[in-house]
Automatic annotation (TrEMBL):
PANTHER family assigned: SEVEN TM RECEPTOR, SEVEN TM RECEPTOR-RELATED
UniProt-listed InterPro entries: 7TM_GPCR_serpentine_rcpt_Str (IPR019428)
Keywords carried by this UniProt record: Membrane, Transmembrane, Transmembrane helix
Protein name: CRE-STR-6 protein
Lineage: Eukaryota, Metazoa, Ecdysozoa, Nematoda, Chromadorea
Length: 354
């Protein structure tokens, strides 16, 4: 059983590298387009989008640098990473904690985006909480949730002699690592006699409350928008109606994608020990979904929202124009606009030869 687990670890490293590279490229592209080319006034939502893209980059980067792994075994799991030649074990343990904190902040920020879109359509008066300095409240709220998640990992899952003895043989057998000598945290819900280890169980309760609260906000806002959106946007201008429709389409995908890439993997990891099944498996492979989520989330916005599609086409057209042979005089290029049918419209242009 040892060799397949090592191969899975190599696969997760590859996926993490792909996720980090793709996220880095897309985040830079997204911020560049948002700041310099997307001229439509998205209000404070523009700031939320930029902040979330930066958070996504931090999430993907931490996953790539720390490379967290989880091995689930019967009544618990061990959360660990390989020792690093660049950092001490204590520094890598802090990295494991920070990764969990960024995960919690990311989940929270997704819920904040849904709340913003919901209030923008159904309770405009509350939009004042996203204006000016008040938008920082949401940044601190996301940071607070991430901090609570990280503290829970650090406090409730600290190793003890019993948990180290419980997981030592499995880690040594499958990963050729000595558990007491590597950066790690352990969660063990039951003893071998079936007694509940309440300290570790409290971490499961804490994570359940955080995930449940954020997902409840997402589902509530998503449900309300799906049922009442047609009536609300009918009272808006054509431009606003089109924009809200595009962002709603992106939010629908932003429910489905994090459900399968962020929520379900974590739910599987934290709830499997409650059943105390006789199995041993590297559930850390599910972290691969975490690595690619930020890139997919940004790609959704770039594809769905017409302004970003147009900006990409404009930049591409400009690059091609500036790279034409010298015998051509580059024509003047106008920025594309969204038509009522969300098509791209350009002024008629001509190119003359010299």
């Amino acid at each position: 059983m040892k060799m397949p687990f090592i191969q899975l670890d190599k696969l997760t490293r590859l996926i993490a590298a792909i996720g980090f590279i793709s996220t880095s490229i897309l985040v830079l592209l997204f911020i560049f387009l948002t700041v310099y080319f997307v001229k439509r006034d998205f209000g404070s939502y523009r700031n939320l989008l930029i902040a979330f893209s930066i958070l996504g980059f931090a999430f993907s980067s931490s996953e790539y640098i720390v490379h967290p792994m989880i091995h689930s075994y019967s009544a618990g799991f061990v959360y660990f990473t390989n020792p690093s030649s660049l950092f001490s074990n204590e520094a890598m343990k802090i990295g494991l904690v920070l990764f969990c904190g960024i995960y919690g902040a990311t989940v929270c920020f997704i819920a904040i985006q849904f709340l913003y879109r919901y209030w923008a359509l159904f309770d405009v008066n509350k939009m004042k909480w996203f204006e000016g300095w008040k938008i920082s409240i949401w940044f601190f709220y996301s940071l607070f949730i991430g901090t609570i998640w990280a503290i829970g990992i650090f406090h409730f899952l600290e190793n003890d002699d019993y948990s180290l003895d419980y997981f030592r043989q499995g880690v040594r057998q499958h990963y050729s690592l000595e558990l007491s000598s590597i950066p790690s945290f352990t969660s063990l819900i039951y003893t071998r006699n079936g007694d509940v280890r309440w300290k570790n169980l409290m971490c499961t309760v804490e994570m359940t409350m955080i995930i449940g609260m954020q997902y409840l906000i997402i589902c509530f806002c998503g449900r309300k928008m799906s049922t009442g959106m047609k009536e609300k946007i009918s009272m808006l201008s054509e431009t606003s109606r089109r924009l809200h429709t595009q962002f709603f389409k992106s939010l629908v995908l932003q429910i489905v994608v994090p459900t399968f890439l962020l929520f379900l993997p974590m739910i599987v990891i934290i709830y499997l020990p409650l059943f105390n099944l006789e199995f041993s498996f590297p559930t850390g492979i599910l972290f691969s979904a975490f690595a690619i989520y930020p890139a997919i989330d940004i790609a959704i916005i770039l594809y769905i929202v017409c302004d970003y599609r147009n900006a990409i086409k404009y930049v591409w057209k400009t690059m091609k124009t500036t790279c034409v042979p010298e015998r051509y005089i580059p024509p003047e290029i106008s920025f594309p606009v969204c038509t009522i049918q969300n098509l791209v419209a350009y002024p008629i242009q001509t190119t003359r030869m010299v």
